[in-house]
What we know:
Blueprint: H1 2-9, H2 12-76, H3 80-91, H4 97-114, E1 118-125, E2 128-130, H5 147-155, E3 159-165, E4 174-181, E5 194-200, H6 201-210, H7 214-217, E6 220-225, H8 235-238, H9 242-250, E7 257-264, E8 267-275, E9 282-289, H10 290-293, H11 295-341, H12 356-415, H13 418-436, E10 442-444, H14 445-462, E11 467-473, E12 482-484, H15 488-499, E13 507-516, E14 519-526, H16 533-541, H17 550-563, E15 568-573, E16 579-586
Parallel strand pairs: 11-13
Antiparallel strand pairs: 1-2, 1-5, 3-4, 4-5, 6-9, 7-8, 8-9, 10-12, 13-14, 14-16, 15-16
Helix pairs in contact: 2-11, 3-4, 12-13, 12-14, 12-17, 13-14, 14-15, 16-17
Amino acid sequence: MRIKAWFYGLSFRSRVWLTIVLLITLAVSANGTISYLIAAKVVQKNAFRLSEDTINKTAQVVDQRLRNITVSMMSLTMSDPFKEMMDDVASANTSRYYQHLTLLQKVFSQFSFYDSYIQSILIATPIGDFYPTTSIRLTNQSFYESDLYQQAKNEKRPFWVPRHEDAFFSNREQVISLVLSTIGEIPNQDYNVYIIVNVKENDLLRLIADNQDTTETGLSYMFINEEGQEIVRSPLYAATDAKWRSSFLERLYSDQTGYFFYPLNGNESLINYARLEVGGNWILIGVQSKERLLAQVNGIKRSTLYALFGCLLLSLFVSNGLTRLLLKPLYKLQELMKRVERNDLNARYASPYRDEVAQVGLRFNRMLDEIKRLIQDVTDGEMEKRKAEIKALTAQMDPHFLYNTLNTIYCKSELGANDDVNDMILSLAHMFQLGLSNGRDWVTLEDEITHMKMYLAIQHKCYDTLFDYRLDIGSGVNLSSIVLKILLQPLVENAIIHGFQNIENGGHIEIAIHVEVAQLVLSVKDNGCGMDIEEVYRNMRHAATSNKGYALSNIAHRLQLYYGEQARMDLYSEPGCGAEVVLRLPVTEGGGADD
């Protein structure tokens, strides 16, 4: 669960990168493992075959060398000096012993010359021993009293004796001996003549070593018979115990040649063996450490691991770039989404590909188009709603003013002031012409000022001595600027009705229009009774349930609907000290009054 939670916590890029790395790792590992197994199998098979061939070749060489010695001794029995010696043995004639010894020296020399492995030759006969005079014969040891004689009597055929100390000559070296009995010309007669040929153990060891590259392969050898007796000395074999030898020898009986693995002195070793024909039951054994034998395989294994490690490092860089390349369209789509979050609905996804990400991008574009269309519909709807609200608010202003004006005209008419009535009706008509503005909600600043003047003219007819006014237009004011209509007239009306409600004369209204920091400032100030600003603000917030502050609330609402945060209304007043209403509008230059 922890691994699952950790995996889910990774970013999409990390999961893609991790997936690619795992796939590359598995692919390289599988490929490397398969390659290693194939190569190891081939190398191991070749190593086994080479080791087996080496042992077989060495066994053949040793076998051939021993056979040659046997054949040489057979040929010795056919030489004339030997035949003459056999005649004297048959007749028990000892008088020509030294003559036969001398004649045989030449034969001995010839055999020693042609076969350097022959160290000494002894011919044991009832009339005396014959041997090369270059060798010193030990007279205290008779062949007929030795164990070799008893073995020869039992074997009744030529046989080879494993390593033993030479008991017949003075050098007392370790030798391997060939013992064969001779047959004379008289049938069924036991001549009791034997030929003993000694071969130096060291010479046989050298013969074995010369046919093996022990330095490269680490090959050691053992030369034993089936009873486990050493033919030549072997330190490896001598270091083993009797129990091991017994179990080891059982593995050698299966075939003439073969190989198997066996733990030798704690090390797994390859055992190759081959039987010799001459020795009868002699077995030449090659021993190689499995680890050293398979050193080439281990080299392949290390090379495979290095290659695998290198490929993994390469995969980290490749997968990083590949992940970035694969996820580049998603990053692009993500950036577009961030732009949309910043209200940039004009962002669009574009890609030359036609893959799944491109299809998502195209649907994202369609979604943006639909959202933009819906927003536009909502905006248009809100705009129409705003226009309707503005018209409704404007319409609310007109009847309010019209009621007061018509009431005044009525009063004038009753009093018979026909000239004032005529002027008021003309001013009222002019006001309505400007106020209607052909259905437009926006007028030029000049028209708005004229509309206000017409109202003031009408009110002067109604209240002759109540107030006077002064209009101040700053030098930087552009009278062609576009403003929302019917802004000044309600402020002036509010000053007359509420500011001067408790006086009969002496009222004064100052109307100022100027520009401040890219804002058009409209100010209406009176010297009336003033107002409680907090109460006015409170009544403006509850304009639907209170008649107080109605005009101000109407204007504030209209400003908010059209200008939003770009316009505001500020109130300044102290009770009994007059009041000032200031409108701050954005400057909108123009020559017409279109919405």
